[in-house]
Amino acid sequence: MSMDDQRRAVRYSYQCQVIVATKDHSCITQLENLSQTGCCIQKPADWNFSPNDVLNLYFVMDNENVMDAEAMLVWEDGKLIGMQYLQAQPIPIQIIDEMS
Hints:
Elements: H1 3-7, E1 12-13, E2 17-21, E3 26-34, E4 38-42, E5 55-60, E6 66-76, E7 80-85, H2 93-99
Antiparallel strand pairs: 1-3, 2-3, 2-5, 3-4, 4-7, 5-6, 6-7
């Protein structure tokens, strides 16, 4: 999938906590939106990752469901961070149900 195709993926606005982690560091932040190819999160104060890090993302959808994905940073603007998944991800059914 080309970068243009990835940027055109349908985005879903959804609020949930996201745990961002590597083996050495982790932080908790909030999701702004997501698609099958990536997501946008709020930049937490304790952000300490480099653009080359492979990050484990854990989306806490509710008290019973957590979605995980590996991703890399593709942009940041000081307040928000754009992440690209290493593999395309299905959109969680909770989000689809809320949109219908």
